[in-house]
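Before the break, one more example. Copy the sequence into your notebook; we will annotate it together after we see the structure.
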Amino acid sequence: MSTQQHWIERARAVLPAGGFGNFDPSTVIREGRGARVWDEDGNEYVDYLIGSGPMLLGHSHPDVLQAIQEQLSLGQTFFANNSKGIELAEQICAAVPCAEQLRFVSTGGEADMYAMRLARAFTRRNKILKFEGGYHGMSAEAQMSTFPKNYIDFPLAEADSAGIPESVRDHVLVGPYNDLQYVEDLLQQHGDTLAAIIVEPLQRIVPPAEGFLQGLRALCSHYGALLIFDEVVTGFRFAYGGAQELYGVTPDLCTLGKIIGGGLPLAAVTGRTDVMNHFDKSKVTSELALVQIGTLSGNPLAAAAGLKSLEILRKPGQFEQLTALGKRLMQHIENELGSRGIPHKIVGQESVFDVVFTEQSINNYRDVQAGDVGMAATYNRSLRDSGIFKSPGKMYPSLALTENDIRETEAAISVAADAVANQQ
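Here is what the structure looks like once it is written out:
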């Protein structure tokens, strides 16, 4: 039995479905350095999963490790305020357009839950509008029509999980991403009961249509609802100020995660002071105050890692380099698939993207799901066999990628294109 198989068997005995619930449990990663990871059998991969996004600087970045080690010698966690967390909050508020104040939590999903709760407290309304296929964590509201089994009529929501009360559906409206006219029509009916619209500025890999985010901003302002940007993925990845900087649209609240913790568990909900005041019971009535407690919120190790990561990202040329890497990979995929006559669309932004095997335009979740599943499986399986580690639906380039890493990736893409062509 191989070392990896040994760990897989042990996992099956103690973990439901043999895994942590995140990724393919048949892979057990032993270590990561730079843009590469190794599994327990020593197989080496160029890593485009990068921990599902947080390792933008690559694994085991020496400066980040040093910052963690320096804080480790002072203590692991305190539950009380710590200077590293305060300093990180200052840096985030200076960087992100909507951020006047913030509260730390441990996960992006937790941040999304609090953002929706904040919106309800501030507006004194109950309904939340989200978009089909949009991922906002694991709360009951978030787990509505994220992975719908059935395409039911909008704006009805479908629970993605067992254990969610039927009553939650009454407070969640669902619409198609990138359809501003639908949102406008919906708000004419429900605008006076809507607390917030929550949206990924780039939904999974689908970019916003021209004017879509600007339209959501205008509609929220008109109807007195809050606009929430879920920037757990896009924050400090699309630009130093996130997607709201890149697209020029400022929400009322945004959620952050992944990169701000430098690979350690840390997330935040941030936004306008008047909204964030609902975390301060001295500023609002007791009926409108939010209770928020988390044992590891603002953990100093994660804050130290996040501070160093942001310091590195502030250096000139970082985002230009990331964009150039992504463009190169996207162009190579386009050339290889296009030259073989394989129907496809490369969807996303340079720092997070993937291929959908289809001839139709991609504007929303249903368009993505209409892609050829067999071709996608062949493509992803070939990449893995060639030593490319990625999720089935995304590629995350990192700043750790070297010329050798890129060339290996390009060679693997060519092999994968052949595999798909042979399947046609």
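The CA atoms of residues 145 and 158 lie 5 Å apart. The radius of gyration is 22 Å. Try to locate both features in your own notes.
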